[in-house]
Design goal:
Layout (H helix, E strand, L loop, with lengths): L1 E6 L4 H12 L2 E9 L7 H10 L3 E6 L1 H15 L10 H19 L4 E3 L8 H12 L4 E3 L1 H4 L5 H10 L13 E5 L2 E5 L29 E8 L2 E5 L2 E2 L2 H14 L4 E7 L5 E7 L1 H17 L2 H19 L6 H13 L5 E8 L2 E8 L7 H4 L9 H11 L1 H5 L5
Parallel strand pairs: 1-2, 1-4, 2-3, 4-5
Antiparallel strand pairs: 6-7, 7-12, 8-9, 8-13, 9-10, 11-12, 13-14
Helix pairs in contact: 1-7, 3-4, 4-5, 8-9, 10-11
The protein binds arginine.
Length: 394
């Protein structure tokens, strides 16, 4: 008998996947990754069993996710198409890695996922699995099965007595982890229409946020956020706390038309308060401690890094090389940033660092000024010389 390890979420699609794979003669191991979407309920676990899983594995991957995936992306300032902080995209290579490990432990022939044929996640899972273990087969039931609608899947569950929560189904497709929430489908598919209030998952709408601003202080050491408002916190609780605070103030919501790997444009809505706050804070600290050349070069890497993550190219030499380069720069990124959160906005209002390159005696316009004004003249002469030459008589 062949064994398959399925990335199981507990939703309708992956519940149907369990039965569908079992019907095709597979021994199905359901693998649930806890990436901060909330602990799986007993219902969800027993649903996998009832659907025909021979084993259900739940693994808490939050720490690894934060440390090895979220943190490098934060330090790289990976933001896709200028707006998406990549919560979903970052979780896929991690889940793929653990699928491969579980497959090895179970001596499995294949792994499977419940992604559709038009999304990015299938690409991320499959490219990652193949990079890690090219001998494993990857099955994508949703791309080939007979069901053409949710209703048909629900009928299939009824036939097989698989208990599902149809009534609790949101009108949206939602993916959630500690770095953020992705919301799509339903009325969001009309790109002209404002996302309705019920599409907000945990961030309050700016209109309903408190009319009093809140100031937060984030402290970094070597590029790693280590303290929030003076309290030392590990990465996962620090992100959780910032999500709560930011969400209260309506911070971290973005929506955009996004270019998928498979060629289509889609309307996406994201909520990522902690990611947004940490990205603003970390970026500001780099502006303070990096010299101009380093800062500008480092800033040019973010879009490329985001593209790699988005396209599912995590386990690649270029990503590893970028991490090495970016990691080297992070030694200086120590200090604190103060930010003000208010009705959806998140503004840096102060920063300091032992490695600060800011010198008041050079910047000031007051009598304390020590900048060498005379040196400017010669500098400008040579700096502009190439352009002057164009109009000089030979
Ligand atoms: N478009 C995003 C991405 O490709 C989010 C996809 C998440 N899926 C969902 N069910 N909302 O990363």
């Amino acid at each position: 008998m062949k064994t398959v390890v399925l990335a199981y979420s507990g939703g309708l699609d992956t519940s149907v996947c369990v039965r569908w794979l079992a019907d095709r003669g597979y021994r199905v191991v359901a693998f649930m990754a806890d990436v901060g979407q909330g602990e799986p309920s007993q219902r969800v676990l027993s649903r996998a069993k009832i659907a025909g899983a021979s084993q259900v594995i739940v693994k808490d991957l939050r720490k690894e996710f934060a440390q090895d995936y979220v943190l490098p992306a934060l330090q790289a300032h990976a933001v896709y198409e200028g707006k998406y902080l990549l919560a979903t995209a970052l979780s896929r290579p991690l889940i793929a890695k653990h699928l491969v490990e579980a497959a090895r432990a179970a001596n499995a022939d294949a792994v499977a996922h419940g992604c559709t044929g038009k999304g990015n996640d299938q690409v991320r899972f499959e490219v990652s699995v193949r990079a890690l273990d090219p001998r494993l087969q990857v099955l994508a039931p949703l791309r080939v099965w007979e069901f053409r609608s949710r209703e048909e899947e629900i009928a299939y569950c009824a036939r097989h007595r698989i208990p599902i929560d149809v009534t609790r189904k949101s009108p949206y497709s939602i993916d959630r982890n500690l770095w953020g929430v992705s919301v799509e489908a339903g009325v969001l598919e009309d790109p002209w229409r404002e996302p309705p209030l019920d599409s907000f998952q945990f961030v309050s709408s700016p209109e309903r946020a408190p009319s009093r601003a809140e100031v937060v202080t984030v402290e970094f050491r070597g590029g790693v956020p280590i303290r929030l408002n003076g309290t030392r916190l590990a990465l996962v609780p620090l992100i959780d706390a910032l999500n709560r605070i930011g969400a209260r103030h309506g911070v971290g919501r973005t929506e955009l038309i996004e270019s998928r790997v498979v060629g289509i444009k889609s309307r996406e809505v994201y909520e990522a308060p902690a990611a947004q706050i940490l990205w603003e804070a970390h970026g500001e600290l780099e502006r303070l401690v990096f010299d101009r050349e380093l800062l500008h070069f480092k800033q040019s890497l973010g879009p490329k890094y985001a593209e790699l993550v988005y396209n599912g190219l995590w386990f690649t030499p270029l990503r590893a090389a970028l991490d090495a380069c970016i990691g080297f720069t992070q030694q200086r990124v120590t200090g604190a940033v103060r930010l003000k959160l208010f009705k959806g906005s998140c503004q840096v209002i102060g920063r300091r660092s032992p490695h600060s390159l800011y010198r008041e005696r050079l910047a000031t316009y007051s009598a304390k000024d020590q900048f060498d004004h005379g040196a400017a003249e010669g500098f400008i002469k040579l700096f502009g010389l190439p352009y002057e030459s164009a109009n000089l008589s030979k």
